[in-house]
């Protein structure tokens, strides 16, 4: 799983890639916090929301929760 985050442009964007499910674009809010950003919103594919993402992201790691319906996955990515 790869999370690509661009917070330097005028319009911050994020994209999540999984080898089995493909690429999802993030649509939601990115709130600055000490040490990084807090992401809260939906993961979209083809204009359809497939799941939600809530994560704390820094330059070295991303930790949070991805959920789809009743299912939840813990997100713990490290550089």
Tell me about this structure:
This protein has 79 residues and is mainly beta. The chain has no helices and seven strands. It has a seven-stranded antiparallel β-sheet with strand order 1-2-3-4-5-6-7, with no helix packed on it. A hairpin with a 6-residue loop joins strand 1 and strand 2 (13-18). It is globular, with a radius of gyration of 12 Å. The model has no long low-confidence stretch (mean pLDDT 88).
Tag the structure with descriptive keywords.
7 strands, mainly beta, single chain, seven-stranded antiparallel β-sheet, 79 residues
Output the structural class: mainly beta
- Taken as a percent bin, the fraction of beta residues is over 45%
Average residue pLDDT:
88
SSE string, helix = H, strand = E?
A: EEEEEEE
Q: What's the shape? A: globular
Number of helical regions: 0
Residue share in helix: under 10%
How far apart are the termini? 12 Å
User: Taking Cα atoms only, what radius of gyration do you get, to the nearest Å?
Assistant: 12 Å
Pick out the low-confidence regions: none
The biggest sheet amounts to: 7 strands, antiparallel
| β-strand number | 7
**Neighbour order of strands in the largest sheet:** 1-2-3-4-5-6-7
Question: What is shown here, in short?
Answer:
With 79 residues, this protein is an all-beta fold.
């Amino acid at each position: 799983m790869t999370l690509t985050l661009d917070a330097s442009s005028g319009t911050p964007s994020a994209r999540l890639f999984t080898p089995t499910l493909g690429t999802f674009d993030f649509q939601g809010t990115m709130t600055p916090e000490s040490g990084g950003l807090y992401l809260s919103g939906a993961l979209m594919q083809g204009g359809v929301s497939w799941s939600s993402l809530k994560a704390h992201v820094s330059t070295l790691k991303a930790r949070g929760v991805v959920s789809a319906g009743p299912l939840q996955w813990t997100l713990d990515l490290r550089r």
